[in-house]
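Re: [ENG-882] Designed sequences occasionally contain unexpected residues at chain ends

Forwarding the minimal case from QA. Structure tokens:
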């Protein structure tokens, strides 16, 4: 091909790429705009968008596959945050649209002049911790997750993985596990590293041999990673799920299971007055749930409760947590009014801990566990590029199959990429 022609590639079809390193002028992208915030199936629309420029410390990546995670839901609903407006408020506007996708596997296609850790052609996975390492706090060794420069990539930043090309900071690129396909490589990073930090960062509440860990949504993105990490540490995962099918799936991963559909005491506490009928009703439900939990664990209460549903489950989480144990949360999917009876907190010396994402180092360590085959990504379904909105809708409706969903962007099929 003549170089003048190479320079003028306008756009290529989804599923194909130009010669390595040749950047087309435009790309296909599934785009969210403010006037279509709402149900994911309607919010995502295919558009032709200019391929973004990269800064000196950035990398342009040809996306092979993109993982579907909850950031893709929140971005499309515009709730609780309108990410496009948020960027404007922060003075970080980068287009009047949003390309979501916080999990990606792909090929390094172009690098900024200061990038040393990757080269054009490298096969990588993107980790979603977008920070400015030159910020004084971080340069002095601070925790990435406490940095004011932290942005969830593909959510708080534009140019995520639901497009033929995405862009990221150089340190967000880590080696793709060679034994995995592009699709498998795209589904584990965000939820896996989040679960890794929740279970291993908050000393002394880190999972150890023999510890019981209660995991809400055991068959979901965080759940499948949480179960595997607890097993790896020699702990006893108890997965809460809403169907027998999901319970079977979690059992195969080595978890004990509870079907939450057998209980109805969910939601925020309305009162803590002990003889109030609403309190008595809640107490009856939570005690029955706790009885089942203690029966299956042989009487051992959870040292850690891995929370994320929030409003519906938080009172139960705090109640069932072992004295001296920790309820750790990274979300409020069912609502943000997480109530609990304070008496169970102070009398039994329990800890409530927030957690969000993971540092670059934690992501990298987690990636090494996957590369070493100690943790296995579990793909539930693989969607073609034009079904991105439908895949996110499935998650929004809690109708997704156990495991995590992947979308093929540049990859031809779900097996491509394994070597
Ligand atoms: N802060 C962070 O860094 C971070 C990182 C990753 C994820 N998150 C958040 O964590 C949440 C879960 O993410 P995910 O990837 O694991 O999602 P997911 O794959 O959809 O799994 C969530 C699970 O929650 C369970 N669930 C739904 N409604 C429930 C309810 N009313 N009570 C109890 N459980 C319920 C469902 O399982 P059953 O219906 O079978 O019980 C579902 O499988 C999202 O809000 C996400 O944004 C936060």
């Amino acid at each position: 091909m003549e170089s003048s022609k190479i320079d003028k590639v306008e756009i290529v079809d989804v599923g194909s790429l130009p010669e390595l390193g040749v950047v087309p002028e435009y790309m296909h992208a599934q785009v969210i705009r403010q006037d279509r915030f709402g149900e994911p199936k309607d919010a995502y629309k295919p558009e032709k968008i200019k391929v973004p420029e990269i800064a000196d410390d950035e990398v342009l990546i040809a996306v092979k596959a993109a993982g579907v995670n909850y950031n893709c839901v929140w971005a499309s609903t515009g709730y609780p945050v309108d990410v496009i407006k948020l960027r404007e408020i922060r003075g970080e506007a980068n287009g009047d649209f949003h390309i979501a996708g916080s999990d990606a596997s792909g090929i390094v296609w172009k690098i900024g002049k200061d990038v040393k850790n990757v080269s054009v052609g490298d096969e990588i996975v993107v980790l979603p911790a977008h920070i400015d390492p030159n910020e004084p706090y971080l340069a002095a060794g601070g925790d990435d997750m406490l940095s004011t420069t932290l942005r969830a990539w593909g959510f708080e930043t534009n140019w995520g993985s639901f497009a033929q090309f995405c862009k990221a900071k150089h340190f967000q690129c880590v080696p793709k596990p060679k034994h995995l396909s592009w699709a498998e490589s795209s589904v584990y990073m965000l939820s896996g590293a989040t679960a890794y930090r929740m279970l291993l960062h908050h000393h002394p509440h880190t999972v150890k041999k023999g510890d019981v860990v209660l995991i809400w949504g055991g068959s979901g993105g965080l759940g499948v990673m949480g179960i595997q990490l607890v097993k790896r540490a020699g702990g006893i995962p108890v997965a809460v799920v809403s169907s027998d099918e999901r319970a079977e799936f979690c059992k195969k991963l080595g978890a004990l299971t509870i079907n939450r559909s057998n209980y109805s005491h969910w939601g925020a506490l309305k009162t803590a007055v002990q003889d109030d009928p609403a309190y008595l009703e809640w107490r009856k439900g939570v005690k029955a749930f706790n009885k089942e939990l203690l029966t299956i664990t042989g009487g051992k209460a959870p040292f850690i409760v891995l929370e994320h549903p929030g409003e519906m489950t938080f009172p139960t989480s705090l109640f069932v947590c072992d004295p001296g144990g920790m309820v750790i949360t990274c979300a409020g999917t069912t609502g943000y009014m997480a109530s609990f009876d304070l008496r169970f907190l102070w009398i039994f010396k329990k800890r409530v801990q927030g957690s969000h994402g993971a540092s670059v180092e934690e992501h990298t360590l987690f990636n090494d566990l996957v590369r070493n085959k100690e943790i296995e990504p579990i793909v539930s379904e693989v969607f073609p590029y034009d079904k991105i909105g439908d895949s996110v809708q499935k998650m929004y409706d809690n109708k997704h199959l156990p495991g995590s969903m992947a979308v093929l962007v540049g990859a031809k099929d779900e097996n491509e990429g394994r070597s």
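QA comment: On inspection the terminal residues look reasonable. The two ends are 29 Å apart (CA to CA). Proposing we downgrade this to a documentation issue.
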